[in-house]
Amino acid sequence: MSAEYELGQVIASRELAFTAPDGTQLPVLLEVGVPCRDPEGPDWYCPCRITGYPGVIDRVTAIFGVDSLQALQCALTRFPAELNGVEGLTFLGETDLMLGKQGS
Known about the structure:
This protein is of the alpha+beta class. Helix content is 15%, strand content 35%. A hairpin with a 5-residue loop joins β1 and β2.
C-alpha cells in the first residue's frame, strides 16, 4: 500500500538552478517539512520534496526514523543521494550543491 503524505509546514528549503542542454534555466526547489509521528506505528517520518527537476516526480516523499531527529537526518540524506553529481544543477552559480556527501 502506498500512502500519500502532505509536506505541511516547510522548515528548510534550497533553490537550485538546472540548466538544460539548450541553455534554458529552470528553478529546482528542495523542501523539508516538519517531522511527524507515523499514525500507523511508533516511528516518525519527515516529509520532503524535490520540485522542478526534469525526470523527478513532483511528490512528497516520507522518510522514516525511530524518532524525529533520525527522520530529519535521513530526509536530508535524500537530496545528495539523488542530486550530487547530476549535470546541469548549480547552487549559487557553483556545481557544488552544498548538500553534503551521500551517506554522511
